[in-house]
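Tokens for chain A. Residues wanted.
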């Protein structure tokens, strides 16, 4: 896809076919909700930050210590901090684009503005795929937690099914505001989970552990470790949806500061502590490297986070499709039989597909790595550069504005290049990992009882 550098209209004209005019201004995706039964724009920036922390932090604390074991403390720590700062910068670009285009609800809407109909379909499909794989990853973590807590007392498939059903019910509220307090509770719990894990590692360090500042390695192993931090910050694909349901979208950057400040600091501390006490043999998920009692406590505390994060992922996929079908109709804001029926079916489909993938595909965890490389590389990093270039060109004065703001133009261009590099290199190493796993007989079988 190439960005269209021919002007499509004046800055006051909606760039998306889903836009609606109110006078000469673009209308917010949910419009005026004063007299509606279902109101979406209820979130404060504090709850948005809590929902984002609940969604992404479990990804980082489960995988980052193992990534540190691959390349060593120094490269991993530098990479974790750099990608966190980089994610804050791209969050700023995404939020600015949303404020300039209030009709944008998801990545597909943004894709239509910049790349046209094909861009909308590609970015919408990518959002749905990534959200479903995210749901599958969380319900798989939930199954692992339940298996640990029950000493494998039930069949893994049954536990996966139980957790999937619970995820479906939590995802059902139509508005994110209904999940806001659960998100805050989840963010607190995943923080406690990380603290418990660090305490368990400190109380039971691995004897004769190997801890090094750097590890000599090849490109394949090094970039395989990069995919961990990239996935740990992979929450930007939800930003448009979250900001669309804020009372004051202009406060969204406050939520981004809290999210990135907390996650970057927490990731850095957690991965260093776990790696220093457990050494190069630390597993992924890291909680499996703790003694049984500590592992059970950590998994027990983190279980609710896995549930709510999975619900947020499936809610995101369902919400995108619902708005695509019913945008600016009464089914969005009223309690209609059709609206609720479609919503329930969409939530069920998102969780059901995730359950099937997680339970029936032996290489599901490897495929999750591929989806992270293909989609998170763009949604979290690369595509934000296009947003800045587009708005500067069309809203700030065309090519002269790009030349005048050469620092921003350079940074935006490098952001696009970085996203492309992470996408290509990450996909390559993820596919090679699958090939090597098959060759080494490391690929297991689907869950059976």
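Reply:
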């Amino acid at each position: 896809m190439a960005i269209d550098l021919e002007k499509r209209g004046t800055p006051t004209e909606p760039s998306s076919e889903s836009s609606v005019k109110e006078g000469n201004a673009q209308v917010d995706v949910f419009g005026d909700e004063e007299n509606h039964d279902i109101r979406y724009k209820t979130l404060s920036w504090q709850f948005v930050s809590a929902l984002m922390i609940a969604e992404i932090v479990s990804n980082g604390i489960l995988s980052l210590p193992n990534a540190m074991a691959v390349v060593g403390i120094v490269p991993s720590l530098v990479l974790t901090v750099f990608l966190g700062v980089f994610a804050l910068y791209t969050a700023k670009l995404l939020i600015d684009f949303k404020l300039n285009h209030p009709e944008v609800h998801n990545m597909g809407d943004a894709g239509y503005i910049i790349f046209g109909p094909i861009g909308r379909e590609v970015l919408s499909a990518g959002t749905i795929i990534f959200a479903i794989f995210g749901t599958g990853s969380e319900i798989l973590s939930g199954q692992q937690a339940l298996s640990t807590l029950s000493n494998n007392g039930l069949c893994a498939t049954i536990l996966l099914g139980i957790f999937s059903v619970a995820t479906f019910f939590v995802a059902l509220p139509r508005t994110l505001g209904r999940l806001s307090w659960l998100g805050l509770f989840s963010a607190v719990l995943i923080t406690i989970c990380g603290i418990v894990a660090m305490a368990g590692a400190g109380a039971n360090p691995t004897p004769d552990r190997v801890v090094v500042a750097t590890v000599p390695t090849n490109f394949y192993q090094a970039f395989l470790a990069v995919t961990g931090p990239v996935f740990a910050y992979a929450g930007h694909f939800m930003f448009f949806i979250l900001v669309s349901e804020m009372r004051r979208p202009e406060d969204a950057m406050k939520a981004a500061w809290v999210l990135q400040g907390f996650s970057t600091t927490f990731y850095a501390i957690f991965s260093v502590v776990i790696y220093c006490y457990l050494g190069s043999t630390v597993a992924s998920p890291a909680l499996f490297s703790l003694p049984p009692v500590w592992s059970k406590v950590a998994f027990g505390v983190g279980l609710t986070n896995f549930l709510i994060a999975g619900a947020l992922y499936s809610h995101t996929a369902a919400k995108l499709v619902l708005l695509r079908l019913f945008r600016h109709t009464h089914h969005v804001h009223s309690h209609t039989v059709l609206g609720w029926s479609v919503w329930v079916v969409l939530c069920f489909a998102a969780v059901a597909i995730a359950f099937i993938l997680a339970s029936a595909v032996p290489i599901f965890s490897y495929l999750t790595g591929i989806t992270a490389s293909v989609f998170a590389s763009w949604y979290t990093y690369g595509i934000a550069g296009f947003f800045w270039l587009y708005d500067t060109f069309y809203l700030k004065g065309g090519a002269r504005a790009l030349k005048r703001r050469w620092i921003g133009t350079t940074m935006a261009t490098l952001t696009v290049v970085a996203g492309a590099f992470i996408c290509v290199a990450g996909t390559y190493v993820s596919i090679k990992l699958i090939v090597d796993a098959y060759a080494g007989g490391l690929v297991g079988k689907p869950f059976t009882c």
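The CA atoms of residues 331 and 339 lie 5 Å apart. The radius of gyration is 22 Å.
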